[in-house]
Specification:
disordered N terminus, alpha+beta, 5-stranded mixed sheet
Length: about 200
């Protein structure tokens, strides 16, 4: 199955956006001048925004002043349940990278993932590999717009949520999306991939 799947994520040029403060967070709006906040941080977020814009999908990216490197931190910032947070995790199946989308309150079961993708050996990728393959650091990996096109697998538990929240390129940026649309834009293969 892994060999037949084609990922929809791809590297996209950054869009120019400016940060505007709204009640402790920031929201993005287009501007002629690209305001750099920490160099690549704003570029990564703009890349995710552009991915959806190119597909005619409007999303709101919220930027926080403090990082949310864990699902628990992100849930606290958003005042939502941890299960509503999407973890975008890179794995290597027989040495080939793939992305798994999982709820924040569960862990990826590598045995289940191995069966679903037809691989004999599945391991979680290192932080270095994650950065190299996706273009983002752990804690800010979005489910879309990666440096390398990736096959995507989505845990069925995400569909129990009305709305889910995913990183938008940095540990300080998050966007909301309904699970079905997330599955469509990532072309993810859905299955039982997690355990408590």
């Amino acid at each position: 199955l892994l060999g037949r799947l084609r990922g929809s994520a791809r590297a996209l040029p950054g869009t120019k956006y400016q940060r505007r403060r709204v009640r402790g967070t920031h929201r993005l709006r287009p501007t002629r001048e690209f305001v750099r906040e920490g160099g690549t941080m704003a570029e990564a977020t703009a890349t995710v925004q552009q991915f959806f814009a190119d597909r005619g999908i409007s999303i709101e990216i919220r930027l926080f002043e403090e990082s949310s490197h864990t699902a628990e931190q992100a849930a606290q910032r958003l005042n939502t349940q941890v299960r509503n947070i999407v973890k975008s995790l890179l794995f290597e199946a027989d040495g080939r990278p793939l992305l798994v989308l999982c709820t924040g309150d569960r862990r990826v079961d590598t045995a289940k993932l191995s069966l679903l993708c037809g691989a004999q050996e599945v391991n979680k990728a290192s932080a270095k590999s994650t950065k190299s393959v996706t273009g983002y650091t752990i804690g800010g990996v979005p489910p879309v717009a990666h440096a390398t096109p990736l096959p995507v697998f989505m845990d069925e538990e995400l569909f129990a949520c009305d709305t889910v929240y995913a990183a938008a390129g940095t540990a300080r940026s998050i966007f909301a999306i309904v699970p079905r649309l997330l599955q469509e834009v990532t072309q993810a293969h859905v299955g039982a991939l997690s355990a408590p």
